[in-house]
Design a protein that fits this description.
This protein is α+β, with helices and mostly antiparallel strands and 145 residues long. The chain has a single domain, classed as Thiol Ester Dehydrase, Chain A (Roll). It is built from 2 helices and 6 strands; from the N terminus they run αββαββββ. The protein has a 6-stranded antiparallel sheet, covered by helices on one side. A hairpin with a 2-residue loop joins β5 and β6. The chain starts with a helix and ends with a strand.
């Protein structure tokens, strides 16, 4: 599905404030199943000053957060299910960080929902920069039905 209004609605459903949103744009969305998105590391993010002074790097833990945000967008967009309340990242499995991003990098993200059970959502996630894999693994989101 490629509908800009649907994409905007899906992104606006994120509960995060703009200061903690690591998903700038949806590239594709198959509601409830899979999605691709991107985040541009602008260089003005406050945390980059300290990670690391003079050589700013996007923290690996925030790569996981970006992937979780995309997985949440995909899960909450399922037209056959009511959105979960207070959806949060609650688990990680086999997360591997192979690289990092620096200012000016575009992080490409993908999330595929691999399972759902009541208030639990499992997703396989990956991230790339310039076609080089920098993150892979599975995350678990949970919320109230």
């Amino acid at each position: 599905m490629k509908d800009s209004e649907t994409f905007v609605q899906a992104l606006n459903a994120l509960p995060h404030g703009q200061e903690f949103r690591f998903l700038d744009r949806l590239i594709s969305l198959e509601p409830g199943k899979r999605g691709r998105g991107e985040y541009w590391v602008r260089g003005d993010e406050p945390f980059l000053k300290g990670h690391f002074p003079g050589q700013p790097l996007f923290p690996g833990v925030l790569l996981v957060e970006a992937a979780a945000q995309l997985a949440g967008v995909v899960a909450q967009s399922d037209p056959g299910l009511n959105p979960l309340k207070q959806l949060k990242l609650t688990g990680m499995r086999a997360i591997k960080i192979y690289g990092t991003a620096s200012p000016g990098s575009c992080i490409q993200l993908e999330a595929v929902i691999s399972g759902r059970l009541s208030g639990l959502v499992q997703a396989s996630v990956q991230a790339w920069i310039d076609n080089a894999l920098i993150l892979s693994g599975e995350i678990i989101l949970s919320g109230q039905v």
